[in-house]
Hints:
The structure holds three protein chains of three kinds.
Chain A: H1 2-29, H2 46-55, H3 62-75, H4 87-122, H5 127-141, H6 144-158, H7 176-214, H8 217-224, H9 229-241, H10 243-251, H11 255-258, H12 261-266, H13 272-281, H14 285-313
Helix pairs in contact in A: 1-14, 4-5, 4-7, 5-7, 6-7, 7-9, 8-9, 10-14, 13-14
Chain B: E1 3-14, E2 26-34, E3 38-42, H1 49-57, E4 64-73, E5 76-77, H2 83-89, E6 94-97, H3 111-123, H4 131-144, H5 150-153, H6 163-175, E7 181-185, H7 193-210, E8 213-218, H8 224-227, E9 230-235, E10 238-244, H9 245-250, H10 255-265, H11 270-276, H12 312-316, E11 322-324, E12 327-329
Parallel strand pairs in B: 3-8, 3-9, 6-7, 7-8
Antiparallel strand pairs in B: 1-2, 1-4, 4-5, 9-10, 10-12, 11-12
Helix pairs in contact in B: 4-6, 6-7, 10-11
Chain C: H1 2-12, H2 14-37, E1 60-61, H3 64-69, E2 76-77, H4 88-123, E3 128-130, H5 131-148, H6 152-168, H7 172-177, E4 180-183, H8 184-196, H9 200-210, H10 215-225, H11 228-242, H12 245-252, H13 257-293, H14 305-312, H15 321-348
Antiparallel strand pairs in C: 1-2, 3-4
Amino acid sequence: MVKFISKNLYQRAITLFFVSIVSFLVIYLAPGKPTQVDPLNPKFTPELVERMRKEFNLDKPIYIQYLLFYNDLFSGKLKSWKDNQSVMKKIRDRFLNSLPLFILGTLITWTISFPIGIYSAIKRGSFVDKTVSLLSYFFISIPGFFFAYILIVFVVKVFEVPVIGMNTFGLEETSLLTIFMDRVWHLVIPSFLGATGGIAILSRYVRSQMLEVLDNEYIRTAWAKGLSPDEVYYRHALRNALLPFITMFGMIIPGLIGGSVIIESIFSWPGLGRLAYEAIMARDYPVVLTLNFISACLVLLGTFLSDILYLFADPRIRL
Amino acid sequence: MEGLLKIKGLNIGLRGQDLGERPSIVQDLHLEISKAESVCLVGESGCGKSITALSIMGLLPKGLRIWSGKILFEGMDLLRLNEKELRRIRGSEISMIFQEPMSSLNPVLTIGQQLREVFLAHLKGEEPVHKKEIEDRCVSLLRDVGLPHPKDQLRAYPHMLSGGQRQRVMIAMAMALNPKLIIADEPTTALDVTVQLQILRLLKGLQEGRECSLLFITHDLSLVPNVGDRVYVMYKGRIMEEGPSREVVSSPLHPYTKALLSAIVDPESPKGIKAKALRTKDNRSNSVLVDKNAKGKGQGCRYASTCPSVEARCRELEPGLMVANDRKVRCWLHVC
Amino acid sequence: MRMGEGYKLIRNDWVGFLGLCLFLCFLGISVLGLLLTRGSEPILDPKKVRLHEKLKPPMCKASPETIANEKLPFGRFLLGTDDLGRDVFARMLQGAYVSMSVGFVSVGISVLIGVIIGGISGYYGDRNIGLITFLSLLLLIAGIILIISSNRSLGLLLSCLGVISLLLKKTRFLKQMDRQFIDVDSFIMRIVDIMLCFPSFFLILTVVVVLPPSIYNIMIVIGVTSWMGTARFVRAEFLALRELDFVKAAKLLGLSDMKIIFVHMLPNAIGPVLVSATLGVASAILVEAGLSFLGLGVPPPHATWGNILSDGKNYLFDAPWLTFIPGFTIMLVVLSFNLFGEALRDMVNPKLKS
């Protein structure tokens, strides 16, 4: 067991190392250096460019840059090129903003998808199943930004609820309850938006897994023993059908960064996704690379957790 | 001998099939099993024998439908019962053993859990259920089916056991509540030859010991005299021959029965090779053989296209079941 | 053989058939659109700015001066005009071609890469890469990188070392040290793992920003970042197929590896690849729309559905058709691909035959 864990971690560490190299190279080898003289911007004099190059170590050979960069990253001294703030601080602030959106969205998605998927599988071909399937297809196919606007128009016209941003400007003096409710309102629509797509995809996957399991011979044995439908579906089928989702569970962790760029853009939510977008547009490479690195760490962490959990869940895999 | 199970006029076809045609899976099946009797149902893959068994249990796959018929169990028509009543009977009065021991047990539950739930599903509400008592019964069941270290096996998972051992567990689950009828659908086909004999002996021994009835389904006619008192030979959904096992095997009446037997007895003869092709391994009990010749037309005997003794009248009209003493056969050759 | 089955299944599964029909419609419309809007004097002009006609709703009549100058179908703007008076119908047609080509080309690229990598991994998987081979490849790649990043001398040195050791690895000296290091399969899977660590939209965004904006760059980027799924499928299928007797028989007959892979194994493995490709087109279209929406797609004034929607979002309440028309169209097209892909999946999956 310990051997398995250590071997696993060791392999992931190597992967992480290579990821750090590859992401570094992608940025630095791409055409269009950040310090190219911008003909439209009068501030970019050649002397300024030279000074920036020195300050950001861009005149050193690439492997030195690599070492210096990651040294700064790990020690927290890395500075953003856009506004010279500490990268880690920027990320931390935005992270706290993204977190409630992410948690709420994930919670809604996972708690609703399973009952829907299971029910659709059990009552395969029924009206509910067909309706749910149709709806799922719609939500998978609809572009996120389009659906967002539909929701915004709908909610603003019908409920007259504030939608953009994290909270309404000017409410700081009112009672705690109002502030809280305001926050909640602002949180609801973006999480709902993120959740619908997720529910559509996840519930279909749950359904197909359940169907596959229900086709198995041991389910027929369970019926032949005279077990009730509840026992057959929930004790026999579900436990087998859920196994792949343990793997998926580990993979939601990386979604914290990657999933929300468009949603945060539309709702002007100051979160990590928006930070990434702004940094990319501004060619703020330290921020981009740091986010990339963190995202890779999350992916590897997520898959590692999945492996461990799977070990406990499936009795066929024992070390 | 008292009748325990009586199947009368069972017709099973595909859902959505035209009612004017012949039902494509099982036609007008009659089958009887008496108390403490062991009956064999023999036929090649796709002849409908597994479907017949599943219809007794009320577990027909979704694409099939029962068109007509009665399945009388102790006088009660099983086809008229609702799901709840059927559930009460399954596992406790009629139980079933399937062909593939490797996939018939749930891989994520222990043997003990799967054994215990048979008791728990049927005993609740009747007597206060003691955990210890159930444990003891499980252990003794595993011992009866010949599993070593039964106490430890309760905590084992199916993948830790061999095919033969898993089949023993299946038999234990089937025997748990002393059912009146056990249906065994090709229980030995997926096992090694050496293990096959052991399982057969076990099954037969338990059946005789507990005086329950056994419906043994197989494609291998050679097993029949060891297991069954009587045998039904089935071909493409029809019973072709019926009688006491030893007599049918020693002096078969129907050409198909003869073909099955000669394939076993003399594999070298040219007819044997042809007949050998009939003895295909039943891999999936859901495989359905749709007789392409029988769509709508074709009123003749089902075996006519392959029969070595076929005559003109065989293709025109299907023979009825002719009775002679305790033998029955569906063949024009045996009409006086 | 399979075609008769496929035909029957499509007839039973009308939803998938509907998806296929919509897909063919879309194909037809995009080709038609290209023909109608290309060139400098197109039949339907997506570029022409008519400020006096701006923000007209769909199916409204064009003003007399416009009708005098150009020919419009029924004398109307079928889908209205945008904030610069441009014909939305013409722009949608132009955008159709963009969406289609981005979808198909990027999926084509990703399938190509995926099949090659997955095939190598699945077929040659248990061949081993020696330590020396690995190290020399590493040296070579590092050298090339250094050369690109204008560190010429060191780069040149390393690459030469790499090449030399590759050439010499068969000699007695190095051969001893050329121990078993890593399987081809494990090696390729590691590369796939590394690629999977990058969140895909993020990566696409990054690369698109640093490259000059053009439709070809977008196609290549999407293609190069989404081959991993296909590679996994192909690898899994090849691993299974390799053990089957007909492959062993082919080998014994002395057929060349290429022939075995392309003639015998690939046709059997194509099922999941087709499904993945169909769903991939849907996904590529969504990604392209997203990029256009963020302003990073095909540059203006070329119309894509994403940037029509993006332009329209400022007029959400005044001219909702600017948002809704492209939005619904994207949804319909993606939906048809998804439906067709799912139907394909059911057709190809042997286990789901009811």
